[in-house]
């Protein structure tokens, strides 16, 4: 019908197509496909696409201040100003005498004058009697010592590297030296906030301090470049000796305090006479050490001194010192790592206590060493431990501790722990540096934030 001009094959083909179309229409496949296509389209429309970032050239250039561009409003460039040196946090201390003026001089001067006048007054009367106590009575005295809230004070700005205590029996006066050359004085007995003042006599770390044995109105302090004497009678820090090689420690060679033995970080030692004009030493001697950390003069036989180096500890005779070729009278072997300190016992000098980085404390008696295990790993942020003898007790020494709760330990020469100074409220840090009063039962511990604790 209407396709008579087509061949039989083509008419058969058209008939098949028509029947197939009717069949698919009955199945409603197109409607299902359209509905599925509509569902898929809706789901795709709900998907949020991340916007493409703008190209750099499309962004507008940010506005910049003409002052920051160093351009005047007229468009003329501003001439380059000469570079200014950066201001130092602490000004350099000049060579020569330095006035004894506290850093906080903007405050009330009367409190500083009161501190210095107290120091001068207590130095006029000096009676030092050293005696040894029985172990039992000594241990009882240690147990009676406490730390009160008012006896904790920040005295210097930074890490405490050295301390000294005035020998007066009536007043507790403590001096502390820190990492940045500050020297703090604290009259603990006054009990007021104005009892502590800080001075700046040095440029570098104050590694060693001592009151003069015959005139405690003089406080000698040693930094890496200078040895100074703080004379309270003249209110000045005099310069005794100066060096660019780096001082490490010192000790008095005689009771008058006129001569001193000074150790250098480079290994040698020097003899200094305070009565000689100038700021140089009398003698410099190479003792064969690569480092000399501490020097200590024998309490009885003043011609002998003890030196502690990297792994070397030896006793030398100052009478036979020469520029080179010096030999130790006696050596204390056994140290396998860096030695932090070595000190004679206070009354007879027959004992030596050393602290070593191999985590051992050694007590040397009659050239025989008795090591005991002890955690000396203070790290880079804490001052290294120094074990010191109690001046009143020939057989007992004091050392800081890394243990928790924080504490300061007292040991007998046998290695027996006699007492641990603790205070959960007052002592919450490691006290690397400690000092003991020569006649009274007073212990002072200094930490790495400049805080002192007085038991």
UniProtKB/TrEMBL annotation:
Compositional bias per record (Basic residues), positions renumbered to this chain: 43-53
Annotated GO biological processes are: regulation of DNA damage checkpoint
Domain of life from the UniProt record: Eukaryota
**Which InterPro entries does this UniProt record tie to the protein?**
WD40/YVTN_repeat-like_dom_sf, WD40_repeat_dom_sf, WD40_rpt, WD_repeat_DNA-damage-binding
Q: Which SUPFAM superfamilies match?
A: WD40 repeat-like (SSF50978)
* One annotated GO molecular function: DNA binding
Q: Which residues form a coiled coil?
A: none
Record region (Disordered)? 42-63, 75-104
Record key words, sorted: Repeat, WD repeat
One GO term describing the cellular component? nucleus
The reply on keyword Repeat is: yes
What is the role of the protein in this entry? Specifically binds 5-hydroxymethylcytosine (5hmC), suggesting that it acts as a specific reader of 5hmC.
What's this protein's family per the entry?
A: Belongs to the WD repeat DDB2/WDR76 family.
What's the protein name? WD repeat-containing protein 76
Q: Which species is the source of this protein?
A: Calyptomena viridis (Lesser green broadbill)
Give the classification, highest ranks. Eukaryota, Metazoa, Chordata, Craniata, Vertebrata
UniProt lists the gene as: Wdr76
């Amino acid at each position: 019908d209407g396709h008579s001009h087509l061949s039989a094959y083509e008419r058969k083909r058209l008939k098949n197509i028509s029947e197939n179309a009717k069949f698919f229409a009955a199945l409603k496949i197109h409607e299902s496909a359209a509905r599925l296509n509509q569902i898929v389209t809706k789901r795709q429309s709900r998907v949020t696409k991340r916007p493409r970032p703008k190209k750099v050239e499309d962004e507008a250039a940010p506005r910049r201040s003409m002052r920051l561009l160093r351009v005047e409003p007229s468009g003329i460039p501003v001439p380059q100003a000469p570079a200014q040196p950066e201001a130092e946090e602490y000004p350099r201390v000049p060579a020569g005498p330095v006035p004894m003026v506290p850093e906080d001089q903007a405050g009330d001067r009367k409190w500083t004058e009161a501190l210095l006048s107290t120091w001068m007054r207590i130095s006029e009367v000096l009676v030092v009697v050293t005696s040894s106590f029985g172990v039992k009575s000594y241990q009882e005295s240690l147990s009676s010592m406490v730390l009160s809230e008012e006896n904790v004070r920040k005295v210097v700005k930074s890490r405490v590297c050295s301390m000294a205590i005035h020998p007066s029996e009536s007043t507790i006066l403590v001096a502390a030296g820190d990492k940045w050359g500050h020297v703090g004085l604290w009259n603990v007995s006054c009990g007021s906030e104005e009892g502590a003042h800080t001075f700046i006599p040095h440029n570098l770390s104050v590694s060693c301090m001592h009151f003069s044995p015959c005139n405690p109105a003089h406080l000698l302090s040693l930094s890496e470049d200078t040895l100074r004497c703080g004379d309270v009678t003249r209110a000045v820090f005099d310069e005794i000796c100066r060096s660019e090689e780096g001082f490490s420690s010192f000790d008095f060679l005689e009771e008058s305090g006129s001569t001193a033995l000074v150790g250098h970080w480079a290994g040698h030692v020097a003899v200094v006479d305070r009565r000689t004009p100038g700021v140089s030493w009398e003698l410099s001697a190479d003792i064969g050490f690569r480092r000399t950390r501490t020097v200590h003069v024998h309490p009885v036989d003043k011609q002998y001194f003890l030196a502690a180096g990297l792994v070397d500890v030896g006793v030398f005779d100052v009478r036979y010192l020469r520029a080179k070729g010096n030999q130790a009278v006696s050596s204390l072997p056994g140290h396998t790592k860096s030695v932090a300190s070595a000190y004679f016992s206070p009354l007879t000098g027959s004992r030596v206590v050393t602290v070593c980085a191999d985590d051992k404390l050694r007590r040397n008696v009659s050239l025989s060493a008795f090591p005991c295990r002890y955690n000396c790993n203070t790290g880079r942020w804490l001052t290294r431990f120094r074990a010191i003898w109690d001046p009143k007790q020939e057989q007992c020494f004091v050392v800081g501790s890394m243990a928790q709760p924080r504490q300061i330990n007292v040991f007998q020469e046998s290695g027996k722990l006699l007492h641990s100074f603790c205070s959960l409220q007052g002592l919450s840090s490691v006290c690397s540096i400690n000092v003991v009063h020569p006649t009274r039962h007073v212990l002072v511990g200094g930490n790495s934030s400049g805080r002192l604790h007085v038991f």
